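TA notes, week 10

Several of you asked for a full example with nothing omitted. So below is the full record: C-alpha cells for the whole chain, then the designed sequence directly under it. When grading your own attempts, check the secondary structure regions first.
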C-alpha cells in the first residue's frame, strides 16, 4: 500500500470513528405530516393547510389535514399538545388561539410548555360589509345610523370568539355604538342572512367576502386591517375612515408539540415558508385574501405572539368581549 493511499485510508477511518462518536442528530421525519386545523372543511385555515400542503406532498412529504373545529380553536391545538414531538404533527394557529385564554375559563394545554411555535405563514383581515341596497356607503355612515338607532341594528359574525366577532366588538367599543350581535355557525351563513335582509351588517374574513364584493353581491365599507388589502386596494381601512387606532390584522401560522427538537422545528419552518413563496401557491392564497407573512421562522412567530397576547387580554377586558 502506497503512503498516499495508506494516509487516505487512515484519514477515512479516523473520520468514521469521529462520526460514530458524535451523538446522532434527530432524524428529520419523512412519513405523512398530520396538520390539525381549528376549523371545518372549506374554512380559511383549512384552505391554507391544503393549498400549502400540495407542494410539500409533491416533494414526498404527504400532508393529512385533520379538521377539529370547536373550543374557539383550542380543540385542535389540544390534540397537537398531546402528540409525539417527532415533527410529524402540526397545528394551524392564529389570532383566535391567542385570544381564547382570555375568553374561556380554561384551555386544554399550557401555551408555552405544551407547544413549540414554528412559523407565521400568512396575514389577512376582516372587512365590514353591507347589502348593495343599504344606505350605508362608509364606516362613518354605519356609526351615524347606529347612534341614531341604538341596539336596533344587527351584525353577523362567524361565531363567538372568532376574528369577525373580535373585529366587530372592538369597533363597536372604539366607535361608542351599541349593535346587536348575531353569531352564526360560520360566516357563509352570516353573509347569507345579510343578503337575505335578516341582519344589517357583517364583519367577514376576506376568503368569504372577497368574491361576493367583487361580484357586486356585497358592498365593503372598510377593512379592519392596519393597512389596505392587496385584493381590495381602493377600500380604506376603518382607521383611515375616521377611527384612528382601530385595527385587527388576522394571521395564521403553525405550532408543533412542545419538546420538538429545534432542528426539526427550523426545518419545518423553512419548508413551509418556501412552499408559501412559490408563485402558484401565492396566487392561490391571494384569491382567498391570504397574503404571505413578512417574517418567517420560530423567533418571528414568538415575537408576534408575545405582542398579541397582552394586547388582546387588555382589549377583551376593556371592550367587555365575551364568548357568550
Amino acid at each position: 500500500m502506497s503512503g498516499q493511499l495508506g494516509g487516505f485510508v487512515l484519514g477515512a477511518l479516523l473520520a468514521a470513528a469521529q462520526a460514530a462518536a458524535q451523538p446522532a442528530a434527530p432524524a428529520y421525519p419523512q412519513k405523512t405530516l398530520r396538520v390539525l386545523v381549528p376549523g371545518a372543511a372549506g374554512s380559511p385555515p383549512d384552505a391554507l393547510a391544503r393549498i400549502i400542503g400540495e407542494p410539500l406532498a409533491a416533494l414526498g412529504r404527504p400532508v393529512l389535514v385533520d379538521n377539529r373545529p370547536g373550543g374557539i380553536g383550542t380543540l385542535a391545538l389540544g390534540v397537537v399538545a398531546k402528540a409525539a414531538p417527532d415533527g410529524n404533527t402540526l397545528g394551524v394557529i392564529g389570532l383566535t388561539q391567542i385570544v381564547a385564554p382570555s375568553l374561556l375559563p380554561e384551555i386544554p394545554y399550557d401555551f408555552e410548555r405544551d407547544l413549540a411555535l414554528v412559523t407565521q405563514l400568512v396575514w389577512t383581515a376582516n372587512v365590514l360589509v353591507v347589502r348593495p341596497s343599504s344606505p350605508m356607503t362608509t364606516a362613518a355612515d354605519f356609526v351615524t345610523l347606529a347612534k341614531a338607532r341604538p341596539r336596533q341594528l344587527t351584525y353577523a359574525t362567524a361565531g363567538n370568539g372568532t376574528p369577525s366577532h373580535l373585529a366587530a366588538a372592538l369597533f363597536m367599543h372604539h366607535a361608542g355604538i351599541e349593535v346587536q350581535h348575531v353569531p352564526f355557525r360560520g360566516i357563509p351563513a352570516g353573509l347569507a342572512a345579510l343578503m337575505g335582509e335578516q341582519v344589517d351588517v357583517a364583519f367577514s374574513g376576506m376568503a368569504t367576502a372577497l368574491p361576493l364584493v367583487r361580484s357586486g353581491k356585497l358592498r365593503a365599507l372598510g377593512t379592519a386591517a392596519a393597512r389596505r388589502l392587496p385584493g381590495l386596494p381602493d377600500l380604506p381601512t376603518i382607521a383611515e375612515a375616521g377611527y384612528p387606532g382601530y385595527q385587527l390584522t388576522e394571521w395564521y401560522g403553525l405550532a408543533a408539540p412542545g419538546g420538538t427538537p429545534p432542528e426539526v422545528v427550523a426545518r419545518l419552518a423553512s419548508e413551509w415558508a418556501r412552499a408559501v413563496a412559490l408563485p402558484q401557491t401565492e396566487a392561490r392564497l391571494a384569491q382567498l385574501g391570504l397574503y404571505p407573512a413578512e417574517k418567517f421562522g420560530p423567533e418571528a412567530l414568538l415575537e408576534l405572539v408575545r405582542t398579541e397576547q397582552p394586547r388582546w387580554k387588555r382589549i377583551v377586558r376593556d371592550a367587555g368581549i365575551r364568548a357568550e
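Residues 298-319 form the longest helix (22 residues). Use that as a sanity check on your answer.
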